[in-house]
Every structure is written in structure tokens, then in C-alpha cells.
Design a protein that fits this description.
Blueprint (H helix, E strand, L loop, with lengths): L1 H17 L19 H9 L11 E3 L5 H10 L12 H13 L2 E4 L4 H16 L4 H10 L1
Parallel strand pairs: 1-2
Helix pairs in contact: 4-5
Length: 141
């Protein structure tokens, strides 16, 4: 699955550039949730770092996706997927994992909590958080 997505994105990138789109203007989206099973989505997220080899920023849109509802329902012993209003924890988890694996653009519904989770994750991953950063980040929000 990941190899097919990677080949497709590579081909689309080449096509866009051949049609005159400057490469630095292209973002790549692996299409989490679009025509994919839960297993496909999880594999894409797990191996997202392989898509960074294409050299373009990765866009991730897991926010409130149905696969999160199915995973959450299974964990709770339910048969019906969690309602979209109950999928924020899954959105936070997948966004943080995607950041760790190289994603840099996130399409989300719940901007503030995802921004906060990504801020903490980025500070943790980079090891560069300083007390002065807190005020700076509030001013740019």
C-alpha cells in the first residue's frame, strides 16, 4: 500500500512540475481515509517517513476520520464507530505520530487542541524548548 501511494505521489509531482508548477509550491497528501481500510491508514501513518523521501512537505488529514471512530469503538468494546465528536483523542494521537514521522501540514477541525499537542510534540522531539518560547508562540497564534 505505501509503495503504491509513494509511486502515485511521485508520478503526480513529476506531472505537476512538467506542466509548469514550481516544485517548491507542491505539497503531497497521501489521502488518509480515502478508499482505504483501517489497516491501510495505520500502515500509511506508521511508514509516513518513507513518503518524506519524495522531498516535498506532507499534508495529513486524519481529523475525525471514520477509521478513528472504528478504532475507538473497538477499544471501548462497541460495535458502532465513535461519533465524530468523540474522535479528538484519535486526531491528536495521529497528528503527533505524523509530525514525528515527517508531516508538516495538518488539516484539522479542532485547531487549538491539535496545535497545542503538536507544539508539545515538536518541543519534545527537538529538545529545544525554552521558557521564552511560550510567550512568542502565544503572540503568533
Amino acid at each position: 500500500m505505501v509503495d503504491e501511494v509513494k509511486a502515485f505521489l511521485d508520478e503526480r509531482l513529476e506531472f505537476a512540475v512538467s506542466e509548469g508548477v514550481r516544485e517548491e509550491r507542491v505539497l503531497l497528501d497521501p489521502g488518509i481515509g480515502f478508499g482505504k481500510t483501517v489497516a491501510h491508514n495505520l500502515e500509511l501513518l506508521r511508514r509516513l517517513d518513507e513518503l518524506t523521501l519524495l522531498g516535498r512537505p506532507l499534508v495529513i488529514g486524519t481529523s475525525r476520520k471514520s477509521f478513528l471512530g472504528r478504532i475507538g469503538a473497538e477499544a471501548a468494546g462497541r460495535t458502532e464507530p465513535l461519533d465524530v465528536t468523540q474522535r479528538l483523542p484519535g486526531t491528536l494521537a495521529t497528528s503527533v505520530l505524523a509530525l514525528e514521522r515527517g508531516a508538516s501540514v495538518f488539516r484539522v477541525h479542532d485547531v487549538a487542541p491539535v496545535r497545542d499537542a503538536l507544539t508539545v510534540a515538536a518541543a519534545t522531539l527537538s529538545g529545544r524548548w525554552k521558557a521564552g518560547n511560550a510567550r512568542k508562540s502565544q503572540m503568533s497564534s
